[in-house]
Amino acid sequence: MPAVSPRARILAICSAPVLALLAVAVFAPLPFSVAEPGSTVNVLGSHQGGPVISISKAKPRKTTGQLRMTTIVATGPDATVRLKDVIGGWFDTDRAVMPRDSVYPVGNTTKEIEAHNVKEMRESQNSATSAALGYLHRSPREVGVKLSLADVGGPSAGLLFSLGIVDKLDGDGRGGDLTGGRTIAGTGTITADGKVGAVGGVPLKTQAARRDGATVFLVPKEECSDAKAELPKGLRLIPVTTLKGAVKALVALKSGGTVPHC
Q: What stretch or stretches form a coiled coil here (predicted)?
């Protein structure tokens, strides 16, 4: 057997820790979540056997077209994400690798996070109702609104809830549908006074929207660049900052007027 040179011996000794670190990197869990396009729900229709938006103390309009809220699906806080998952997610346009803290900023267990998301959804629904009735100058004493979307958590459906309420009560304000018969999707939080906020995961939500037939996507203006990065063919982006602006843009889209763009 030939003698091992001092240089080879040194290289072998130095490479051992590097190989050990690589082995740890390959097999150790990493603080990331892998997300992909989730379901979409038409807030003007039904979900799990009941209407998403129920109106009482006022007669709702019959609507055509769809307003689809969008979601993403991410690996849970207890899931093990390894290096191969992260690398795969970086090169797959149907998936995204996100820091776990950005997906689950509150709570350490699935149960805690589910409770937090339910709370955020309830608050979002209240804000969406206040924003829509405020825009229409209607009082909660005159109109009752119930929103039901039990299996979806978080605040990102706020804008679409508000638009759905407006469409069911007032349409485009001229006797027609706010959607113009189109399938329109979108995302965005909303405050009680009608301001639209960013949500995250927009490139995946545009894919979910196009998959489910949408041709128009309402996006918080500050997330335009994210939405354009991997925009599916055939999907038109409309940036919004307020509920009033979103309604105005949809009316303009229907009538052939000037529509904002990213």
A: none
- For residue 11, count CB atoms less than 10 angstroms from its CB and return exposed for 0-12, middle for 13-18, buried for 19 or more: exposed
Please list the residues that pair with 98 across neighbouring strands. Answer: 33
Single pTM value for the model: 0.82
- Domain tally for the chain? 1
- pLDDT for 1: 46
Indicate whether 7 belongs to any domain: no
Give the tens place of pLDDT for each residue, 159-178.
999 999 999 999 999 999 99
In which domain, by residue range, is 161 found?
37-75+108-255
Residue 25 domain-assigned (yes or no): no
CB atoms closer than 10 angstroms to residue 239 = 21
* Across 26-52, average pLDDT: 82
